[in-house]
């Protein structure tokens, strides 16, 4: 099995590093740009040199036209009186011309007798001789190499063809082309080196980020952070490092909170479990107990089970993460509070709940908001010792629940929403210390807030605020 795996791994091509891929991409882009520039320069230079040759041909044409027209009888360039001999034709207007000849509209030619080769005659050349076409420039091949030829009209059904060699132009193009090629290659090599250096420098923070992530994965040490320095807000890599550190902070905070929750829950579970174990051991001798003791023991077991169930339920509620977006709906918060007050009155029949609820619409998870409201009402009724009055008021997304109990000691105010925290005066009463922690979690997950204070005139005042939806305005 391992042999096949090793073979498959060996056959699989190794993926290039990001730095190498960026360097190759930058080098390729620069090479394409330099190649396009060199090609454009070469073509432009060739066009410029050919333009110079054409200008020289035009001057030679002017000389030839004046000479041939002025001596038409001598050289018989007319289509009707041809003299194939043109021995002095070329010498009369310069020896710089490579080849020349007179062409007639029917395709006949007259050339110097010292010239062995003949220039090609095509339909365009005959059209120039016939006077239906202007002068024509083109590059042709000859026995001595490429030449640039022009065909220009002479009138009376004749045209002159003059050719200049392109050997000088080709030699210049070869020399300049070689220089351009060397300069382009040097530019590509320089861009490759600069691309490697730039990517190595630019990706150094990414390499540190990768090393940090690998170290955290290997050691599970969430306390390690990247050294951002002065580049936190200066560039994208600095912002990436800051975001990575912020993500680590959030992960570490979440992990610490979960560990603390498990530790606190384990500690709180010991008491009801110990009580249940003791009562169950006593139940093994239930035949020796009096009927009243039996009933009290069974009631104690059932109470312990209820406490344990409530503790597990609250712990699971606190361990929940944020609700998915699909679970969030819009609902009337005042109607939800009204239903919660009705249920609380059933649990606390001796408590008077006074409500003052203004219409209010919010977005959230109704079940969790209901749980938070119920915890606030139960907390107020419990602090009222199951008697007295609890005032419930809702205005502009803020729910205030006030009891008329002993209030909250100043030293306990900062901790009332902590997990498993119970005031010293309430530790002899039923409860797990998670009710108000659930209220705080619901508020945070819905973008709201909670607060606790002592009301003027006695009693505690707990406040839950949730963002309200914008109410439509009527024209």
What do these coordinates show?
This protein has 475 residues and is α+β, with helices and mostly antiparallel strands. It folds into 3 domains: 21-172, Beta-Lactamase (2-Layer Sandwich); 230-318, Helix Hairpins (Orthogonal Bundle); 324-465, Histidine kinase-like ATPase, C-terminal domain (Heat Shock Protein 90, 2-Layer Sandwich). Helix content is 52%, strand content 15%. The protein is built from 11 helices and 12 strands. It has helices spanning 2-11, 18-70, 72-75, 123-130, 167-202, 204-219, 236-283, 291-319, 333-347, 366-383, 435-445, and strands at residues 99-104, 109-110, 136-142, 145-155, 158-165, 329-332, 352-357, 361-364, 389-395, 398-402, 449-454, 460-465. A hairpin with a 2-residue loop joins strand 9 and strand 10. The longest helix is centred in the first third of the chain and has 53 residues, at 18-70. The radius of gyration is 50 Å and the shape is rod-shaped.
Give a quick set of tags describing it.
disordered N terminus, single chain, Heat Shock Protein 90, 475 residues, Helix Hairpins, alpha+beta, rod-shaped, five-stranded antiparallel sheet, 12 strands, 11 helices, five-stranded mixed sheet, Beta-Lactamase
- Number of helical regions: 11
Strand sequence of the main sheet, in spatial order? 2-1-5-4-3
Q: Round the mean pLDDT to the nearest integer and report it.
A: 78
> What is the overall shape?
rod-shaped
Radius of gyration, in Å, reads: 50 Å
Strand count, sense and barrel status of the largest sheet are:
5 strands, antiparallel
- Order of SSEs, N→C? HHHEEHEEEHHHHEHEEHEEHEE
Helicity level: 40-55%
What is the first-to-last residue Cα distance?
A: 77 Å
The residue ranges in which pLDDT falls below 50 over 5 or more consecutive positions are 1-12, 79-88
Second-tier CATH architecture of the largest domain: 2-Layer Sandwich
Count of the domains:
3
Got a strand count? 12
Structural class: alpha+beta
CATH class of the largest domain: Alpha Beta
CATH topology of the largest domain: Beta-Lactamase
Question: Strand portion, in percent?
Answer: 15-25%
């Amino acid at each position: 099995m391992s042999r096949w795996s090793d073979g498959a791994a060996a056959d699989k091509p190794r993926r290039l590093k990001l730095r190498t891929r960026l360097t190759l991409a930058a080098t390729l882009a620069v090479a394409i740009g330099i190649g396009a520039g060199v090609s454009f320069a070469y073509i432009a230079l060739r066009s410029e040199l050919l333009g110079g040759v054409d200008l020289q041909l035009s001057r030679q044409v002017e000389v030839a036209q004046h000479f041939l027209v002025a001596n038409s009888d001598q050289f018989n360039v007319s289509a009707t009186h041809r003299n194939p001999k043109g021995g002095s034709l070329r010498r009369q207007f310069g020896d710089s011309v490579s080849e020349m000849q007179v062409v007639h509209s029917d395709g006949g030619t007259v050339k110097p007798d010292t010239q062995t080769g003949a220039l090609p005659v095509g339909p365009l050349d005959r059209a120039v001789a016939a006077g239906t076409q202007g002068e024509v420039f083109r590059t042709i091949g000859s026995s001595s190499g490429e030449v640039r030829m022009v065909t220009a009209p002479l009138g009376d059904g004749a045209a002159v063809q003059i050719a200049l060699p392109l050997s000088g132009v080709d030699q210049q193009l070869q020399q300049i082309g070689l220089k351009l090629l060397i300069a382009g290659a040097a530019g590509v090599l320089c861009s490759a080196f600069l691309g490697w250096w730039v990517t190595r420098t630019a990706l150094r923070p990414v390499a540190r980020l990768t090393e940090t992530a690998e170290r955290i994965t290997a050691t599970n040490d969430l306390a390690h952070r990247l050294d951002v320095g002065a580049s936190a807000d200066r560039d994208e890599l600095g912002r990436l490092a800051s975001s990575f550190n912020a993500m680590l902070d959030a992960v570490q905070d979440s992990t610490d909170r979960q560990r603390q929750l498990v530790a606190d829950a384990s500690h709180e579970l010991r008491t009801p479990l110990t009580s249940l174990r003791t009562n169950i051991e006593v139940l093994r001798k239930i035949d020796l107990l009096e009927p009243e003791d039996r009933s009290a023991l069974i009631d104690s077991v059932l109470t312990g089970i209820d406490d344990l169930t409530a503790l597990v339920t609250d712990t699971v509620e606190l361990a929940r993460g944020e609700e998915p977006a699909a679970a969030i709906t819009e609902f009337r918060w005042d109607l939800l509070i009204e239903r919660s007050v009705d249920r609380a009155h059933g649990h606390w029949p001796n408590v008077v709940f006074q409500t003052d609820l203004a219409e209010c619409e919010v977005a959230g998870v109704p079940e969790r908001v209901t749980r938070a409201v119920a915890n606030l009402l139960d907390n107020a009724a419990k602090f009222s010792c199951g008697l007295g009055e609890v005032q419930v008021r809702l205005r502009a997304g803020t729910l205030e629940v006030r009891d008329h109990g002993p209030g909250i000691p100043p030293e306990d105010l900062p901790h009332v929403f902590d997990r498993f925290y119970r005031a010293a005066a309430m530790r002899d009463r039923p409860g797990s210390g998670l009710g108000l922690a659930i209220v705080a979690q619901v508020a945070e997950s819905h973008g709201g807030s909670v607060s606790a204070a002592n009301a003027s005139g006695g009693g505690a005042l707990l406040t839950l605020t949730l963002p309200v939806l914008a109410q439509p305005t009527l024209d």
